[in-house]
UniProtKB/TrEMBL annotation, chain A:
Highest taxon of the lineage: Bacteria
All copies of domain ABC transmembrane type-1, residue ranges: 21-209
Protein name: Amino acid ABC transporter permease
NCBIfam families: HEQRo_perm_3TM
Source organism of this protein record: Azospirillum oryzae
From TrEMBL, chain B:
Family the entry assigns: Belongs to the binding-protein-dependent transport system permease family. HisMQ subfamily.
Membrane topology, from the record: Multi-pass membrane protein
Protein's name in the database: Amino acid ABC transporter permease
One GO BP: amino acid transport
Organism: Azospirillum oryzae
TM helices/strands, residue ranges: 20-41, 62-81, 184-204
Keyword Nucleotide-binding: no
InterPro entries according to UniProt: AA_ABC_transptr_permease_3TM, ArtM/GltK/GlnP/TcyL/YhdX-like, MetI-like, MetI-like_sf
Keywords per UniProt: Cell membrane, Membrane, Plasmid, Transmembrane, Transmembrane helix, Transport
Length: 224, 217
């Protein structure tokens, strides 16, 4: 038995697929940006906050890292309305992604912060920098530089895992694929094309991150 | 008619855990076997093998796990096999796990100093002996903590089998929720069960990492 491939149905909905891909990109960048801010705050809290704060941040990280993203989405999208907070699928998806990536990125950035030698901080203070300046220039920037590869691969994983938000019908790439699939029944053709789009997005993201690294962090010679 | 969430519903969730565990074990063992070959290919001296393994890893790490499951599920019909969600999930998760474990183990194999390889070669060992007696035993030591850590990802990954209709813990949660309509309670319990499965493994992985990291360097 031979299967008759029909890609026409996929290409007929090309615009729709691109819309979905664009939402995937926007969700991913939105979640990265907000997640990064949360992660920096949590990493700071975890390395130098008072004990209850540290404990809370730890609990947040452990709960998120040890439960599936899909269950987190269900809790946010279906669970929150039952306590009176009704969210649209897109907003719920964004919140779930932020909460998820925030936990992973906190651990990564914390590792970066802890890699900064105490002497560096003391040197910074001795030079008359204010604590906030020390944190920004002496701790955070070199820390982010150290963990940059881990952080960006986490962001790419986030973009890929955003396909899971199709389970609550946020209109991103995978949801769009599901819709086209249910109208045309060309399941395999659609999912193989969409998988290709994700692969291209992942490659574009890593090229973009490499570019950002060159712009923002290439200020010392790597002596390794 | 809406049912209340009671003891039976809780038992239903608990009994679904066995499917989550079964799927995890299959994906982990299958992924481990394929992953070993991926890691060997990735560190091989033969260029085509290396390129093949690199491409394999790139494709599986560069596309969503959900898409991989869909492709196995719907791809089976293309080649004329009627595949149940259960088999599709097992195959998809195995392939995905093998790519990630392969890449983790590549790093472990490469962490064995080059001198060890050269020493083994000069002792007259060929590739199988060199791997079996010299490189892999040393690589395994480094590989244990990240592998245990990755097991957590495997368990969490099995939740996506719910989307293609396989009744494991997450799907059981959806079913109970549809009957009781208490999403906050139901999914909190589901999350708590996953946490109870994954957290001990995370802690173990951290502990092993601390133990292995201390004396070696």
């Amino acid at each position: 038995m031979t299967y008759d491939f029909q890609f026409d149905a996929v290409f007929a909905s090309w615009d729709y697929l691109l819309d979905g891909a664009w939402l995937t990109v926007r969700l991913s960048f939105g979640a990265m940006a907000i997640g990064l801010v949360i992660a920096i705050a949590c990493a700071l809290g975890k390395t130098s906050g008072p004990k209850p704060v540290r404990w809370l941040i730890n609990a947040y990280i452990e709960v998120i890292r040890n439960t599936p993203f899909l269950v987190q989405i269900f809790l946010i999208f279906f669970g929150l309305p039952s306590i009176g907070l009704r969210l649209s699928p897109d907003v719920a998806a964004l919140i779930a992604m932020v909460v998820n990536v925030g936990a992973y990125a906190t651990e990564i950035i914390r590792a970066g912060i802890e890699s900064i030698h105490k002497g560096q901080i003391e040197a910074g203070l001795a030079l008359g920098l204010r604590p906030l300046q020390v944190f920004r220039y002496v701790v955070l920037k070199p820390a982010l530089r150290t963990v940059y590869p881990a952080l960006t691969s986490q962001f790419i994983l986030l973009m890929l895992s955003s396909s899971v938000v199709s389970a609550i019908s946020a209109d991103e790439l995978t949801s769009v694929a599901n819709n086209i699939q249910s109208q045309t029944f060309r399941s395999f053709e659609i999912y193989i094309v969409v998988t290709g789009i994700y692969l291209v997005l992942a490659l574009m993201f890593s090229a973009l991150f490499a570019g950002i690294y060159r712009l923002a962090f290439a200020y010392t010679i790597d002596r390794r | 008619m809406i049912r209340a969430f009671g003891y039976n519903e809780f038992l239903f969730l608990l009994s679904a855990v066995q499917w989550t565990l079964m799927l995890s074990v299959i994906a982990f063992i299958g992924g481990g076997i394929v992953g070993l070959f991926v890691a060997l290919g990735r560190t091989s001296d033969v260029k085509p093998l290396r390129l093949l393994a690199t491409g394999y890893i790139q494709v599986f790490q560069g596309t969503p796990l959900l898409m991989q499951l869909f492709l196995v599920f719907f791809g089976a019909t293309v080649i004329g096999i009627d595949m149940s969600p259960w088999v599709a999930a097992a195959v998809g998760l195995t392939l995905n796990t093998s790519a990630f474990l392969g890449e983790i183990w590549r790093g472990c194999i490469q962490s064995v100093p080059r001198g060890q390889w050269e020493a083994a070669r000069s002792l007259g060992l060929r590739y199988p002996g060199l791997m079996r007696y010299v490189v892999l035993p040393q690589a395994v030591k480094v590989a244990v903590p990240p592998t245990v850590g990755y097991l957590v990802q495997v368990i969490k990954g099995t939740s996506l089998a719910a989307i293609i209709g396989f009744v494991e813990l997450t799907r059981a949660g959806q079913i109970v929720n549809n009957a009781t309509f208490q999403p906050f309670l139901v999914f909190s319990i589901v999350a708590a069960i996953y946490f109870a499965l994954c957290w001990p493994l995370s802690l173990l992985s951290q502990r092993l990492e601390a133990r292995y990291a201390a004396p070696s360097r």
